[in-house]
Design brief:
α8 crosses α10. 39% of the residues lie in helices and 20% in strands.
Length: 405
């Protein structure tokens, strides 16, 4: 007890000493007054967003929109999703724009913290509130006969398409499945909620879905609790839940992260197979460039909350343009190539609370030019399907007659 008391007193004294010695204007130090001002400002802003989100009776015309291209299932248009923290506003997604075509697999790749998962959670309207809020931008979703702007939809209407039209396979199945309910109950819930069927019909459909994802004893697994299954089995159950209503879009958020290599291959093959069966689209989020190369038709590279390069899989892997994309590929180990040390991109990601006005990758880039000190670079269209946000390729754009966005 005495030791704890002495320790606490010492740490408090050190804290007071740091506060006294910290110079004013230090970017890594907030005074108590500044902290209170941030908290008050955040509270006001959050109340405004929550008030909009809780509106129930909204006319459909408010969130009905038109797709820019009818061949797309989803269009992200200048999406901004922020987290209002005690240290300031963290810009987790800072102007993301890309599309997911019908029947295609789009791979979203980037290092941890670049905004991949927050982009997908924004699409599902599952960003952790009240701190996390979609601040601006649009997410257009193609329903077939009409299109909705998901950012403007009331949550009561969003629940009708979440799980039915858009389904998500989460990163860690053990934390996604409810440990106190049997697998069958959690599978039946989807059918009972969206298909309005009887309990017997829901059970039959659930067992059919377990067979579809390659589970050998579906009747037994139907009666099991999540902790009674292996990691691969739980991931298959998550896929079965996601596919139970035959959604138009499947979001797979790193579906193979916690699995061993052989199970990873099985899960990826299963995703390919079921995608073709339901004729849907897939948004695949992963760190693994090998998975992207095998699964994706198009690739979106993200860095510090922004999209920096997009293109077909062949374009991104055979002709990477952005220095960050090149660095990602160089850091990947290659079978048969002997190296003393794996390559790593130097430097650190900028603080999301205090982002610079210039290119976010500038301080880590070894190919900077004078223009990089200016405003953040616009997108340069290199080919009909390939675009990059980098000043190094302005000449290429001028020669090929591309255009800025």
């Amino acid at each position: 007890m005495l030791f704890r008391k002495r320790n606490t007193t010492q740490s408090e004294a050190q804290g007071e000493e740091v506060k006294k010695s910290a110079p004013k204007g230090n970017a890594h130090y907030l005074s108590a007054k500044e902290s209170r001002e941030i908290a008050k400002s955040n509270a006001r802003t959050i109340r405004e967003f929550e008030k909009k989100n809780k509106v129930k009776h909204v006319d459909e015309s408010v969130y009905t929109c038109e797709m820019k291209d009818e061949n797309n299932i989803v269009e992200f248009d200048d999406l901004h999703t922020y987290f209002f923290t005690d240290a300031g506003v963290s810009k987790a997604v800072d102007g993301v724009t890309f599309s997911i075509p019908k029947g295609a697999t789009v791979g979203v790749v980037g290092e941890s913290g670049c905004g991949k998962s927050v982009t997908s959670l924004s699409l599902m309207r599952l960003v952790q509130a009240p701190q996390g809020q979609i601040v601006s931008g649009a997410i257009r979703f193609n329903m077939g006969d009409k299109a909705y702007d998901i950012t403007k939809m009331p949550l009561s209407e969003m629940r009708k398409i979440r799980g039915k039209q858009i389904a998500m396979i989460f990163q860690e199945p053990m934390t996604s499945l409810n440990p106190v309910f049997r697998i069958g109950y959690q599978l039946d819930e989807m059918s009972l909620l969206h298909k309005k069927c009887t309990k017997e019909e829901a059970k039959a459909h659930s067992i059919e879905m377990l067979k579809l994802v390659g589970i050998a004893a579906p009747e037994r697994v139907y009666r099991c609790y999540p902790h009674e299954l292996s990691g691969g089995m739980r991931q298959r159950v998550m896929i079965a839940i996601a596919l139970s209503c035959e959604p138009r879009l499947i979001i797979a958020d790193e579906p193979t992260t916690a699995l061993d290599v052989t199970i990873q291959a099985q899960i990826l093959d299963l995703l390919k197979e079921v995608k073709d069966k339901i004729d849907g689209s897939v948004m695949l989020i992963t760190h693994d460039l090998g998975v992207i190369a095998e699964m994706a038709d198009f690739v979106v590279v993200m860095y510090a909350g922004r999209v920096i390069e997009t293109g077909t899989t062949q374009e991104i892997f055979n002709n990477p343009l952005h220095p960050y994309t090149i660095g990602l590929q160089k850091s990947k180990p290659v079978v048969g190539r002997k190296v003393d040390r794996l390559y790593n991109i130097p430097g650190q990601v900028p603080n999301p609370i205090d982002m610079p006005n210039f290119c976010y990758f500038k301080d880590r880039c070894d190919r900077c030019i004078e223009k990089c000190n200016g405003e953040y670079p616009h997108f340069i269209q290199v080919s009909p399907t390939h675009r990059v946000s980098c000043y190094l390729y302005e000449d290429m754009q001028n020669k090929e007659g591309g255009s800025n966005e």
